[in-house]
Amino acid sequence: MSEPLRLSFEVACAPEHAFTVWTTRISSWWPRDHTVSGRDDAEVVLQGRVGGRIYERTPDGVEHEWGEVTHWEPPRRLGYVWHIGQDRTNATDVDIRFFPQDSASTRVDIEHGGWQRLGAAAEERRAQNRGGWDALVPEFVAASEKGGG
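Request: output the structure for the sequence above.
Response:
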């Protein structure tokens, strides 16, 4: 069985700001080479509620489903099933928690699991996602710290 990926890092902003950047400003920091379309002009949308869709939309209206929000507890927790570029039956689980460290910083803990659902492809997809997180986290940190908050 594949263990969940676990990441933990700090950002120099309040949890409320970090949560907002992750959710309502996701399109501003998400790398375009981590989309289905690969288009620089695609918009990334995370609908802020349990059951909300996560998807990309191109300017010509084509939408690609990425996931669905499963936990919505601003500004402490966000969870979703994740299947970017895959069938929903191959979804994994992402859980993100935002912990205040002091008045100006937040620890972000991410657990990405559910790899067992992928059968023989589990280890390969886990390794691919590890690389994906390594690219995403610096983008998120830069966007979070840019606005302060």
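The chain has one domain: 5-146.
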